[in-house]
Amino acid sequence: MKGYSAEIKENCAGARLEGVDASYKDLCQVCGRIRSKDAVWAMDFLDKASRAEIPVLYKRHNKKLGHRRELGGKKGRYPKKAAGIVLKVLKSALANAMVKGFGEEYDVVTATANKKHAYPRLQPKGRRGRSYYVLSRVEIIVHGRQELPSGVEVSPPVAAEKKEEKPAEKKEASPAKKIEEKPIERREEKPAVKDAAKPKTDMPHIEHKHEAEKEMEAEHAAHERNAFEHNKGKREVVKREG
């Protein structure tokens, strides 16, 4: 359903709540108790019912219900969840009416609850039992007691426009305090002077080669010296043929 089921007349405001996870039977009976009542009394009644301080009269859907002494022996129960939901919708409707400027005293013109959606569900195990997950909707319309003069249109209050803040202008320093910036003088780098005393060598690897040869000759001489000392004093064995 789109919109409201009842017509919203002049000097009226409403509010509704869709897809409520609560019993539409309980919501319907709670709405019936505040219909055509004063808004202040309705809020007090719903507040006490949501805290289970007073029972709610059930005129329908009351099969096998207990009788309540507070209701004069009539059938009723304590629907705390449903009362809290209806109270929330009633506060929203009153807030909408006050924003439109319909005064401060209101009466509840319409308060209804209906079935919204029903989703089929199956039992996960055992015998396949089928049940439905049912959602509800609640709508409330309030009427302002204050009568407006003919030809006067009420509009919601307009929020005050924020003034555009201008960017702060930067203050220039006085000429006396300004520091004269002098250009930075860059020194010219002179080319490095080559060492004239150092002899030029076109082939530096030749000197390195002579040093390597000297080291190898020294190693050969030391090796021959060690071999001679090791074989000194040993007789040579000569094998005879035949």
Summarize the structure.
By secondary structure, this protein is of the alpha+beta class. The protein has helices spanning 24-34, 39-50, 80-100, 205-231; strands at residues 12-20, 56-57, 67-68, 74-77, 106-122, 130-144.
Give me some keywords for this one.
single chain, 242 residues, alpha+beta, Ribosomal Protein L22, Chain A, three-stranded antiparallel β-sheet, 6 strands, elongated
3D architecture notes:
- With 242 residues, the protein is of the alpha+beta class.
- The chain has a domain at 13-144: Ribosomal protein L22/L17 (Ribosomal Protein L22, Chain A), CATH 3.90.470.
- The chain has 4 helices and 6 strands.
- A 3-stranded antiparallel β-sheet has the order 1-6-5, with helices on one face.
- Strand 3 (67-68) and strand 4 (74-77) form a beta hairpin.
- The radius of gyration is 53 Å and the shape is elongated.
